[in-house]
Design goal:
Blueprint (H helix, E strand, L loop, with lengths): L4 E4 L6 E2 L1 H14 L7 H5 L5 H10 L8 H14 L6 E2 L3 H10 L3 E5 L4 H10 L9 E2 L12 H10 L6 E5 L2 H10 L2 E5 L17 E3 L5 H10 L2
Parallel strand pairs: 1-4, 1-6, 4-5, 6-7, 7-8
Antiparallel strand pairs: 2-3
Helix pairs in contact: 1-3, 3-4
């Protein structure tokens, strides 16, 4: 079936949002008189969300009484500074232009709450170009459940088999596969050191956004 749409996970796939997360973590440490930490340690756990980042930033377990206030402070800071340093990955602007020039639609399906995801899309000038933005707020079950992808395909009025979902986490691939979409795993995102995208069962694995050009060309030629 010919490809009709490309859907992207947000953090670590469409956008490099790590610089904003890192700035917040380092700022919270600095405010407490703690030295800056290795940025890679933060990048390695971004896929785990605010909880994981606070845990590694302060070396606290979620059961610690200090943990929840720090997590809430992290989220408050991120609300005000969620698109200061975030940007499209290298090559992604060209890929999106290719998608649009091929008369395909593209959108975002993310586990990031809409209160963060929507401002980021707007501030980066992507909201007007994206066909949709699906967040946990719009569904009962987030990825790895297929519900977000099923909703996206329904909103686009497309057969899931004509949709490619691109992500940097096993949850993305499981969600897309169970929804019936084609799947692409990227290795340039926020991959935990012990994880391997080649083992996720995706239809294709790519190392750079522009590597998806060949995938699109092949899918556009299929019937």
């Amino acid at each position: 079936m010919r490809l009709r749409a490309v859907l992207f996970d947000m953090d670590g796939t469409l956008l490099d949002t790590a610089p904003d997360f890192i700035a917040i973590c380092q700022g919270m440490r600095a405010d407490r008189g703690l030295p800056a930490m290795d940025e890679q340690l933060i990048r390695d756990v971004i896929s785990g969300g605010a909880r994981a980042m606070v845990e590694v930033t302060f070396g606290l377990s979620p059961e610690s009484p200090e943990f929840e206030p720090l997590r809430l402070e992290f989220l408050e800071r991120y609300q005000s500074n969620c698109a200061v340093h975030s940007k499209l990955y290298d090559g992604m602007a060209e890929l999106l232009a290719d998608i649009e020039s091929s008369d395909l639609v593209w959108g975002v399906v993310t586990n990031k709450p809409v209160r963060f995801a929507e401002p980021i899309m707007q501030q980066l000038g992507l909201a007007e170009r994206s066909a949709l933005l699906i967040c946990p707020d719009h569904v009962k079950n987030s990825k790895p459940d297929p519900e977000p992808l099923i909703l996206a395909c329904k909103m686009l009025d497309l057969d899931p088999a004509s949709v490619l979902f691109v992500g940097d986490d096993l949850r993305d691939i499981e969600s897309g596969r169970d929804a019936g979409t084609r799947t692409a795993a990227v290795t340039y995102g926020y991959i935990h050191p012990q994880d391997n995208p080649n083992n996720w069962g995706a239809d294709v694995v790519v190392d750079h956004p522009l590597d998806l050009r060949k995938v699109l060309d092949s899918a556009l030629c299929s019937c």
